[in-house]
Amino acid sequence: MKQYFELFDNVYIPGRWELERPMDEHGQEIRTWIFREGKPVTIKRRIRIPICTPGKALDFSLLTSGIVPIVSARVAAVFAELAPGDVQLFPVDVEGQSEPYTLLNITRVVKCIDDEASDEVRYYKPEHEQPERLGQYRSVIGMRIDPSKVRDAQVFRTWGWTGTIVVSEALKEALERLGATGTKFTSVTGPSTITPEERARDRKSLELLDTAASARETAWRTLGSLDQEVFMPIAMSSAWPGQRQLWSVIRRDAGRTLLVTHGLSDPFIDSLEPSVGFGLELALEVDSAVKDISKGWPLLLLDRVAEEVAAHEHVREGVKAGLFSMEVAGKGLPKALVTSEGRVAVLLGLESRTLPGHFSTPYGEVRLVTVKALLPSELAHVLEHGAQGQAELARRFADNGEEHLSRPKRRPVV
After folding, report:
1. From residue 162, how far is each of 60, 102, 112, 140 by CA, in Å?
2. 170 Cβ neighbours under 8 A, 6+ residues apart
3. Cα–Cα distance, 138 to 167 (Å, whole number)
């Protein structure tokens, strides 16, 4: 049987660089989704690749904005020789690099995922309200493919799950002989890695998590336009009920962006019983259309707040009781928000005229908790006056019309 391997970007290389989304020669962003569909594209502009994290240059890297490879000249030569019918090679200028690099556009899509052999697969259904993706995969874990369906493809994306790059054994071995840096391979052929009992348990947990996630997405769509193009990688966390950290991005009126946690109300996966997890989700709204969510301060702040909520029961109890203030690390956050001690404060649970306090799921009611970034002087007011100070801030935020909105560049209300 032929062997095939999923090709990853090795993110664990110490001191490695990170490459930003591509630009043209005029500084205009080139949308990366066109390189993820497994189709030939026409690009007449010269492509420039900024570096978002300086470090060791690699032969193979994926852009931070998606599963799009940037490769050195010697790696490009391997693909050109072994897979000429499967790729397009676009020369790019990588910031600060004199040596040539290439954007690799994979132009083959093969329908070959073996649903039964894979550890876990999920599909888009009518209730997900994305008719263009109906029948495609929402998630594939422990992927296995059917080699008999691949035919002559040497590198390809998998149908219905095009965020994956699969290469043949011959291509893998050629890259290894070359000593290409940045590559990591995982086999996608052979028997499943889990037992029938494990599979049954996984399917039960999948059903529970899917039901909860679908109910949340329905709620999110009532708040604005759910952004499906934002690439938000899933992180695993034993502190979250479903052991997965998920986020959603909602585009709102007046150019606002609403970020919400998407998993604090997952059922507790260890018990395999219906529940609303911690019974809450967090929401942080800013007054701008944040383009690169993964690099912006709003997600960084919400992530740190969510970590505290997930890890500490006393924090959750305080949040559920009403207004609750807390501090998190200020590194990487706007200077206007950071105290002299290097911390940033937030006030949770502010009422909003434009966001509901709760939403329903088949497993019960979930509270939607707003998160508002405080200025240092507002934190000082809370520390001095306690609950009375929190209530006073809430009243003044409501009076000036900003309520739960987080905005670093504003005047303090106290």
Report:
1. 18, 20, 12, 11
2. 82, 154
3. 22
**Residue 31: pLDDT band with limits 50, 70, 90:** confident
What residue type is 164 in one-letter code?
T
Q: How do residues 257-270 score in pLDDT, each as one tens digit?
A: 999 999 999 999 88
Which amino acid is located at 204 in the chain? K
Query: Can you tell me the distance from the alpha carbon of 148 to that of 228, in angstroms, rounded to the nearest whole number?
Result: 33
Query: Residue 353 and residue 101: Cα distance in Å, rounded?
Result: 51
Cα(45)–Cα(197) distance, integer angstroms: 53
> How much is the average pLDDT of 270-275?
92
- What is d(CA 387, CA 397) in angstroms, rounded to the nearest whole number? 15
Cα(71)–Cα(91) distance, integer angstroms = 10
| pLDDT tens-place string over residues 168-188 | 999 999 999 999 999 999 999
Strands 87-94 vs 18-19: parallel, antiparallel or unpaired? unpaired
pLDDT value for 296: 86
Q: Is pLDDT above 70 for 229?
A: no
31-68 burial by CB neighbour count: b if 16+ within 10 A, else e?
Answer: ebeebbebeeeebeeebbbeebeeeebbbbbbbbbebb
Q: For residue 141, name the pLDDT band (cuts at 50, 70, 90).
A: confident
Residue 43: both structure tokens together: 């690009």
- Please write the tens of the pLDDT for every residue from 366-404: 999 999 999 999 999 999 999 999 999 999 999 999 999
Angstrom distance (rounded) from CA 376 to CA 250: 28
The arithmetic mean of pLDDT across residues 245-267, rounded, is 94
